[in-house]
Amino acid sequence: PAPQTKWRAAVKAAGGPVGRNMLEDLSLLTLDTLQKCIFSHDSHCQEQRSEYIAAILELSTLVVRRQQRLLHHTSWLYRLSADGRRFARACATVHSFTANVVQRRRRELNSLGHQAWLKGRQGRSMDFIDLLLLTKDEDGNTLSDEDISAEADTFMFEGHDTTASGLAWLLYNLAHHPHYQEQCRQEVRELLKGRDVEEIEWEDLSLLPFTTMCIKESLRLHPPITAVSRRCTEDIAMRDGRVIPKGTAHLGHDVPSVPIPPVYNPMRFSPENSQGRSPLAFIPFSAGPRNCIGQSFAMAEMKAVAALTLARFAIRPDPARPVRRRTELILRTEDGLWLQLEPLSGMP
Fold first, then answer.
1. 4-343 is classed in which CATH architecture?
2. Hey, which residues does 338 pair with through a beta bridge?
3. 165: closest CA among 6, 260, 284, 46?
4. How many Å from the N-terminal Cα to the C-terminal Cα in the chain?
């Protein structure tokens, strides 16, 4: 669920609409969600400090800072620096947590046997670690503990900041376009038809077409990942006669030859306007065999959080805190992404 308890408490304390840094709140939300879905672990990091979550956040900061310091590009120099030592400690914390979970599950699987282990999981959803433990290749070989840990760490590290950025910019765009925000809200209410918003089901997420259009348009206008690195292995002739030469690399959000209208218009992604469009015309999750491993997960999470949030809060721009974009590993802002939250009448 969205961090609504925290927001309601802030609104109550302020006695009215309250400004919140959406990037900060939603980053903790996505970290909390990932820990639950990957490890079946309740971190409660939205209410209290978690050593593991603190290490993930520190790694994100250190990676960006290393890119900005030329001397730190050399690995042995970086390892000797204060930042390098902090990076090593944070990595050890993250790797130790993941390895302990994987090893504990592996021992349980080996002790109980395959069938008994599966039977013991009936009645609850399997998490990411469970699925990886059961994965086999075409020759029947399972993944090693190290392979599973690497996949889990990748999903965790790459999945929190990107989804938080996507969610924050979605709410930013809906705050600046209240008619679209209200249309999303009515779509959620019509779907639920008297059910509490907390009762939204997995199947419901595919029945939010306009909300999905709003998410896609937000990803087009404010993509969390602003560049996709690909290199042409041969000359590519375009239909208009132009040639992309061999060796060309990089496709970015700000490429001058690709027109990107700065107007937020979800109708670009209506079924009528999407008909006949190349699947490579919109690639917020990259494309091809190396596309984003978590794109379905991210889209489902964004739909769920949007539904939970819009059903209970009106979102407005915060005029006291203008938003200035800043590109790091993801699309962030200089001083946070602040929006005003106002509880809707009759909100439970």
1. Orthogonal Bundle (1.10)
2. 21
3. 284
4. 14
| Rounded Cα gap, residues 12 and 6, in angstroms | 10
Domain positions in the chain are 4-343
Residues that constitute the known binding site:
292
Question: Phi and psi at residue 326, in whole multiples of 5°?
Answer: -145, 125
Query: Residues near 329 by Cβ (< 8 Å), separated by ≥ 6?
Result: 60, 63, 64, 161
Instruction: Tell me the binding residues for heme.
Output: 292
Nearest in space to 202 (alpha carbons), one of 346, 299, 68: 299
Residue 346: phi and psi, rounded to 5, are 80, 10
The 10 Å Cβ neighbour count of residue 249 is: 8
pTM (two decimals): 0.84
Can you give the three-state secondary structure of 150-181, one letter per residue? HHHHHHHHHHHHHHHHHHHHHHHHHHHCHHHH
Map tokens 């599973």 to a residue. 148
Task: Summarize pLDDT for 152-186 with one digit per residue, the tens.
Answer: 888 888 888 889 999 999 999 999 999 999 999 99
**Whole-angstrom Cα distance, residue 190 to residue 183?**
11
Distance CA 128, CA 149 (A): 11
